[in-house]
Amino acid sequence: MNNDVPDLTIPLEEEEKPNRFRAFLLESLETIVLAVVLFVIINALTARIRVDGSSMVPSLVHNNYVLVNRLAYQLGEIQRGDVVVFEFPQNREEDYIKRVIALSGETVEIANGVVYIDGQPLAEPYIQAPMLQDYPPVTVPQGMVYVMGDNRNDSSDSRRWGALAVDEIIGKAIFVYWPFSDFGVVTHYDFSIP
């Protein structure tokens, strides 16, 4: 047995340190990449808005934070009663949230606090109070919808600035996620007119 041969074995502790550090870096990088991918996907599919004002009381209140489905109307049709988020036609920097009242081709009229669609009264359990002002009949142009706030007497909506182009709609409000006391699904009503 030759005792002159040097011992080339590396102690186990020295060998494990670079491997542990490399594994930590790899796991950290994977976590960061996954977080970025999830962030991009979530932002492509959803939007988040803060309700500013009282135009949607009692359904939504000031400072509610709402999650919005961006794909809702690419995968389905707009329905009367949907709560939608859109760029305000008179100021593209602002996002508004309102309820769809009438669809393309329908005639809207407001008389004695009641909304009529094509001459039929619309039952609206979600409004704050009946409207105080009447509005003459108006037919919603193709590619547009008529939207109103649930707090009819304190809302800037289609009564003031006209029908909303469907392509200006960002998406459908899904649920309130903040504050937790208001956490829950945004109620959408499906009203068919006979």
List keywords for this structure.
alpha+beta; Umud Fragment, subunit A; single chain; 194 residues; 3 helices; 4-stranded antiparallel β-sheet; 12 strands
Fold and architecture overview:
This protein is α+β, with helices and mostly antiparallel strands and 194 residues long. The protein has a single domain, classed as Umud Fragment, subunit A. Helix content is 22%, strand content 32%. The chain has three helices and twelve strands; from the N terminus they run H-E-E-H-E-E-E-E-E-E-E-H-E-E-E. Strands 1, 2, 3, 4, 9, 10, 11 and 12 form an eight-stranded antiparallel sheet that branches. The protein has a four-stranded antiparallel sheet with strand order 7-6-5-8, with no helix packed on it. The termini are far apart.
Average the pLDDT over all residues and give the rounded result: 89
CATH homologous superfamily (4th level) name: Umud Fragment, subunit A
Return the CATH class: Mainly Beta
Strand content: 25-35%
In short:
With 194 residues, this protein is α+β, with helices and mostly antiparallel strands. The chain has helices spanning 12-45, 72-75, 158-161, and strands spanning 46-50, 65-69, 83-88, 91-102, 107-111, 114-117, 120-121, 135-139, 144-148, 164-165, 169-178, 184-185.
SSE blueprint:
Elements: H1 12-45, E1 46-50, E2 65-69, H2 72-75, E3 83-88, E4 91-102, E5 107-111, E6 114-117, E7 120-121, E8 135-139, E9 144-148, H3 158-161, E10 164-165, E11 169-178, E12 184-185
Antiparallel strand pairs: 1-2, 2-11, 3-4, 3-11, 4-9, 5-6, 5-8, 6-7, 9-10, 11-12
